[in-house]
Amino acid sequence: MTDENDAAGALEASGLGKTYRRGWALRDVAFHLPAGRICALVGPNGSGKSTLLSLAAGLLTPTTGTLRVFGQEPSAPAARERVAFVAQDKPLYPRFSVADTLRLGRELNPRWDQKAAERVVEEAEVPLSARVGSLSGGQRTCVALALALGKRADLLLLDEPMSDQDPLRRHRMMGVLMAEAAERGTGVVISTHVLAELDGVCDYLLLMGGGRIRLAGEADDIQAAHRVITGPSETGGGTPAALARHTVVETRTTGRQLTALIRPEGTPSEDGWIVTEPSLEEVLLGYLRAPDAPPLLADGTRTPDTEVGA
Ligand SMILES: Nc1ncnc2c1ncn2[C@@H]1O[C@H](COP(=O)(O)OP(=O)(O)OP(=O)(O)O)[C@@H](O)[C@H]1O
User: Fold this and answer.
1) What is the DSSP string of 241-266?
2) Ligand 1, atom 24: nearest CA belongs to which residue?
């Protein structure tokens, strides 16, 4: 990390919105991502993750509001130099060999690190002599990741980079990525639908829904702000009075037992109820199942309808 603007954070969004022809893809997005964090970007299909990443990479311009990368406009050369983006479509030259592709990376990037790039293709067992057009989708993704790591960026923006990797390679690629991030303090924003992949890897979280931010902040803070509480369900359904003082994210009823994901107000001590700490995956699943649950911004940003937690 070199820039004096790191204090501004890796990403800072305020009132950020983006429309396409069919309407708003992002709306009133505000969050703060400190430099050097591993941030999971999670949300259902169409919730705006790729749009947010493309804005951060300077490939799209906002319709409203601002997004800053290390304090700069994403399209500014100083910001572009510090950011590497692996998009879902991974545009690579099919006629180039893997070695030619890395050579091009070296010519285009002043901070190029050949060893870091080669480590990725070696780990993925992709031959340097292979033509890109002859590679499988998953192998092409590894070449795109090699270009991103070779760039020696301070922020990696990765749009579902593991979606076409087999489980073993997924594990190995995540290992290479995390080792790189730990070694150099590189920040990572990684969008994924595989929630199990996040536990113990990500220290920051952005959950999107309908083009808005629903959860933002330190993964530990977000996890600690929730409890799973299990007890007797009310006859006739509805949320039991015992839960009224808490923020209820989601309830599920099995027979005569009700399980709720809550943001507790004080220590939950209701008689006959069992209280446990949810895993991060359980918290995320709860919000994904309950699209209308109140948002929680635990990253210091505030909007009128948002509670600041943790
Ligand atoms: N180029 C485009 N032109 C028009 N609409 C678009 C375009 N790209 C995205 N959208 C729309 O914007 C919304 C957000 O899409 P986006 O791709 O950002 O979501 P996502 O969360 O990345 O989805 P997924 O998980 O399926 O990749 C969707 O309603 C989508 O249809």
Assistant:
1) GGGTTSEEEEEEEETTEEEEEEE-SS
2) 45
Indicate whether 305 pLDDT > 50.
no
- The ipTM, to two decimals, is 0.98
Q: What does residue 275 show for φ and ψ, rounded to 5 degrees?
A: -115, 130
Q: What residue's CA is closest to ligand 1, atom 28?
A: 46
> Rounded to an integer, what distance in angstroms lies between the CA atom of residue 139 and that of residue 100?
15
Given the CA of residue 18, which atom of ligand 1 is nearest to it? Answer: 12
Tell me what pLDDT residue 169 has: 87
Q: Is the CB of 89 under 6 A from ligand 1?
A: no
Closest residue to atom 25 of ligand 1, CA basis: 45
Strands 187-191 and 38-42: parallel
Four-residue CA torsion sign, 236, 242, 246, 250: negative
For residue range 108-119, list pLDDT tens digits in order. 998 899 999 999
* Residue 49, ligand 1, Cβ within 6 A: yes
Q: Give yes or no for a contact between 286 and 249, defined as CB atoms under 8 angstroms apart.
A: yes
Nearest Cα to Cα of residue 34 among 195, 210, 206, 283: 206
Q: Which atom of ligand 1 is least distant from the CA of 43?
A: 21
Q: Say how far apart CA 221 and CA 310 lie, in whole Å.
A: 5
Mutate to test the pocket of ligand 1, among 22, 85, 192 (most ligand atoms within 8 A of CB): 22
pLDDT, one tens digit per residue, over 159-209 is: 998 888 888 888 888 888 899 889 889 999 999 988 877 778 899 999 999
Please state the pTM of the whole predicted model: 0.91
Does ligand 1 have an atom closer than 6 angstroms to the CB of 51?
yes
